[in-house]
């Protein structure tokens, strides 16, 4: 058989192929020749054939039939054969194929070989594709080579040990003695791989991390090595752009970050060296910037001094001035992570950050926008909003939605005045109205309604805005609503903030009718416009014109618009005497759902919307697996398990709204707030509004004995009963919670649920602390409406904190005295 062509000739031949098909034909022909050679057990050219096969594998062609040939080469005594054999094993084999287990004995023999280069090949292969079984079998040989004095083998053994630890973490302790002397090595290759090994051990085991911090005193050793690197003179062997071994410096900084995280002593020991690195590293080359970036990350992650953190933020500020886009991006990302903890230090670079909004790179613009919103506060709101609104005008459409939302949030939180707030949001609506969130329209309407002194100014501004542009639908919707509410102020010209405009009733109606017929108007906008025209029937004298417009849309193909028009026609024809009262100006709206983070506090069944920036009350964790623990007040005909849902954003009622436990439980099993003081909120009447806000004890129902509903773990819940004179269908139950243990029960929350045929109201408890040793009781009143006189059933849920541990329990109460419900 003729000698096969050499690898160099094969590469040259393949490169001459003009088409993919021609190349494929060459490869197939050569693969056939290689297969024939393998079948004939040709030992002379096996190494050459496997090398060619590896090249074909790199081109993407199948080469699996050469796996066993790699094992034969590994078993050979020639170094050239072993080298190609191990390379083929690393490329063609992995732990998913059982063939690789046949290599274990060969690798073990080669790890004990007399030649260091053969040992190095075996270490590389094991560190590249060794399975957990191979790692267990060969870990002893790796650990032995890790202790050798040969630097060439130690660095390879350290990397191989990293792979062994990743595959079999329980073998980590085997390598612990070998790590003691690794950092005393002067060879940079050994130092580098040693730091990688120590990093892997610290990341994977908290015990190892604690051991290296305290017993091994690892931080001082790393500080010493890093100091030598910084202070050492020029070393051509390790120099990269004038910096001594930047790769080792970066690895050491990462390990220091892990060691200093959450540890005061370790952080204190590395503060000085981090300051030295930050001040002495050259920033003109990318190598220096990489080291500085790792230094900044380490400073921010450990318990560093405040001055050092300011230095780190100043380094990031210098990065923002760099011409390299990648450096600017990582600087913005890092500043965004630190802005909450070091707000004032980041504020110093505000102008540089705002300049990044003009960058051509979209990723930099997005990060700069997010960071700019994070920097907004009450002191710089005017200047920052000016820059961000300018950005909103000129930015790409993909940014407009997020930018508009950010402006709304910032304006709501830090607005210096209501006029400024209204002007800012109207500016957003006129420039990016089509991109704003769905809740922006009702939120702006609420803001305008509550700003009584700004009504005339606002309606005039909005009227002029829609004369110029009716393409921004949210703007048109808000304008329509305001014109309907305050059209009389617009026509009368009562605006004091700016020069009033002269507008007639017919001109206003012309604009609204134009919105109804415009192709740009959505069905929702038309609904706003028709309602506005209807409201103006009580504010304008042109009632006949309004009647005609409303009657026309009684036959609209839009069902929503048609329904509105029909109802409004009925108002004109049948209920004209009620029309002025129905269409009178809206009262001031209570602030319940905002763009900002409104807190909803649950107080034993009474939900209240608290003001921003109130302190969070003590909370008790609610496990998610008890989501179905309570009965739904409003679900099913009989008893339906409660499904935990998110806290509602509806307002609480002052008159005793029947609260649904279904709506007050957290879907995510989050904390249930403890009782909070009541906040009176004006709302329409609800079912039990006939009752006073205090329990009714008009008539003590004689003969209704008290009952014990719960008695467990020292907590006793007793029920006493009253009957209401005005409505005998209402039973008033007072719970008395007592505690016989030696410690107080804090954060006490009582919840109850009943089947749908009943309706239940929980009033606020007398306290959320049940005193120890029966020294007092917590009382709470429950009102139950039982119109069908059915037997009362109740499920109760008790949550409290005892000696620092949260406790939660459930119980069913089905033995109510008949007198309490008959």
UniProtKB/TrEMBL annotation:
Keywords: Cytoplasmic vesicle, Golgi apparatus, Membrane, Protein transport, Transport. It comes from the Eukaryota. The keyword Transport applies. InterPro entries: Adaptor_Complx_Large_Subunit, AP1_complex_gsu, ARM-like, ARM-type_fold, Clathrin/coatomer_adapt-like_N, Clathrin_a/b/g-adaptin_app_Ig, Clathrin_app_Ig-like_sf, GAE_dom. GO terms for cellular component: AP-1 adaptor complex. It is found in: Cytoplasmic vesicle membrane; Endomembrane system; Golgi apparatus. Residues 702-817 form the GAE domain. SMART domains: Alpha_adaptinC2. It is a peripheral membrane protein. One of its GO terms (biological process) is intracellular protein transport. PANTHER family: ADAPTIN, ALPHA/GAMMA/EPSILON (PTHR22780). Belongs to the adaptor complexes large subunit family. This is AP-1 complex subunit gamma. It comes from Chanos chanos.
């Amino acid at each position: 058989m003729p000698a096969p062509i050499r690898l160099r000739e094969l590469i040259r031949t393949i490169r001459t192929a003009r088409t993919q098909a021609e190349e494929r034909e060459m490869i197939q022909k050569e693969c056939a020749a290689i297969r024939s050679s393998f079948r004939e057990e040709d030992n002379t050219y096996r190494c050459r054939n496997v090398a060619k096969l590896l090249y074909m594998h790199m081109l993407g062609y199948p080469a699996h039939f050469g796996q066993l040939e790699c094992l034969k080469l590994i078993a050979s005594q020639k170094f050239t054969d072993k080298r190609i054999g191990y390379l083929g094993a690393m490329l063609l084999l992995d732990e998913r194929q059982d063939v690789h287990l046949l290599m274990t004995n060969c690798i073990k023999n080669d790890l004990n070989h007399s030649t260091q280069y053969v040992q190095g090949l075996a270490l590389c292969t094991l560190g590249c594709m060794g399975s957990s079984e191979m790692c267990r079998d060969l870990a002893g040989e790796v650990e032995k080579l890790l202790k050798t004095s040969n630097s060439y083998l130690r660095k390879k053994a350290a990397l191989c040990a990293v792979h062994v630890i990743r595959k079999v973490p329980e073998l980590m302790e085997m390598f612990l003695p070998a790590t003691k002397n690794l950092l005393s090595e002067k060879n940079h290759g050994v130092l580098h791989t040693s730091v990688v090994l120590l990093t892997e051990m610290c990341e994977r085991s908290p015990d190892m991390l604690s051991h290296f911090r305290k017993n091994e005193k690892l931080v001082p050793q790393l500080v010493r090595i890093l100091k030598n690197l910084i202070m050492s003179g020029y070393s051509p062997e390790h120099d990269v752009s004038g910096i001594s071994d930047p790769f080792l410096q970066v690895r050491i900084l990462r390990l220091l970050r892990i060691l200093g995280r959450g540890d005061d002593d370790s952080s204190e020991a590395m503060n000085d060296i981090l300051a030295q690195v930050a001040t002495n590293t050259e920033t003109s080359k990318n190598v220096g910037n990489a080291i500085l970036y790792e230094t900044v990350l380490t400073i921010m992650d450990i318990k560093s001094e405040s001055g050092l953190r300011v230095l780190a933020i100043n380094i990031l500020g210098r990065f923002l001035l760099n011409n390299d886009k990648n450096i600017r991006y990582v600087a913005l990302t890092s500043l965004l992570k630190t802005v909450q903890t070091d707000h004032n230090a980041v504020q110093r670079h505000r102008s540089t950050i705002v300049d990044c909004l003009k960058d051509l790179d979209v990723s930099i613009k997005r990060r700069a926008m997010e960071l700019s919103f994070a920097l907004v506060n009450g002191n710089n709101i005017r200047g920052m909003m000016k820059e961000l609104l300018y950005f909103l005008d000129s930015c790409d459409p993909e940014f407009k939605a997020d930018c508009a939302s950010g402006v709304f949030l910032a304006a709501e939180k830090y607005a210096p005045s209501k006029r400024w707030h209204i002007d800012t949001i109207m500016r957003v609506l006129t420039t990016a109205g089509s991109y704003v969130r769905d809740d922006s329209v009702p939120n702006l309407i609420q803001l305008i309604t509550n700003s009584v002194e700004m009504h005339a100014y606002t309606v005039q501004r909005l009227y002029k805005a829609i004369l110029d542009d009716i393409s921004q639908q949210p703007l048109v919707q808000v304008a329509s609503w305001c014109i309907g509410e305050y059209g009389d102020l617009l026509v009368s010209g009562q605006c004091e903030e700016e020069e009033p405009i002269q507008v007639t009733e017919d001109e206003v109606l012309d604009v609204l009718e134009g919105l109804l017929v415009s192709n740009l108007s959505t069905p929702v906008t038309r609904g706003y416009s028709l309602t506005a025209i209807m409201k103006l029937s009580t504010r304008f004298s042109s009632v006949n014109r309004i009647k005609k417009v409303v009657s026309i849309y009684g036959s609209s193909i839009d069902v929503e618009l048609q329904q509105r028009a029909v109802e409004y026609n009925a108002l004109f024809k049948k209920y004209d005497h009620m029309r002025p009262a129905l269409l009178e100006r809206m009262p001031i709206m209570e602030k319940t759902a905002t763009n900002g983070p409104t807190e909803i506090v649950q107080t034993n069944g009474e939900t209240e919307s608290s003001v921003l920036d109130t302190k969070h009350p003590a909370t008790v964790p609610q496990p998610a697996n008890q989501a179905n623990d309570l009965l739904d007040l409003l679900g099913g005909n009989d008893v339906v398990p409660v499904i935990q849902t998110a806290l509602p954003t509806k307002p609480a009622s002052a008159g005793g709204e029947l609260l649904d436990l279904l709506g007050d439980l957290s879907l995510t099993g989050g904390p249930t707030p403890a009782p909070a003081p009541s906040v009176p909120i004006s709302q329409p009447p609800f079912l039990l509004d006939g009752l006073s806000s205090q329990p009714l004890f008009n008539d003590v129902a004689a003969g209704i004995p008290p009952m014990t509903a719960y008695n467990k773990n020292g907590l006793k819940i007793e029920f006493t009963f009253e009957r209401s004179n005005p409505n005998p269908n209402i039973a008033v139950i007072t719970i008395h919670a007592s505690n016989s243990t030696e410690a107080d029960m804090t954060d006490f929350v009582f919840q109850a649920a009943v089947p749908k045929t009943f309706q239940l109201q929980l009033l606020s408890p007398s306290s959320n602390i049940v005193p120890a040793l029966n020294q007092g009781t917590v009382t709470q009143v429950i009102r139950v409406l039982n119109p069908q006189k059915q037997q009362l059933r109740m499920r109760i849920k008790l949550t409290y904190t005892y000696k620092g541990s949260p406790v939660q329990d459930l119980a069913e109460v089905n033995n109510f005295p008949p007198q309490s419900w008959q």
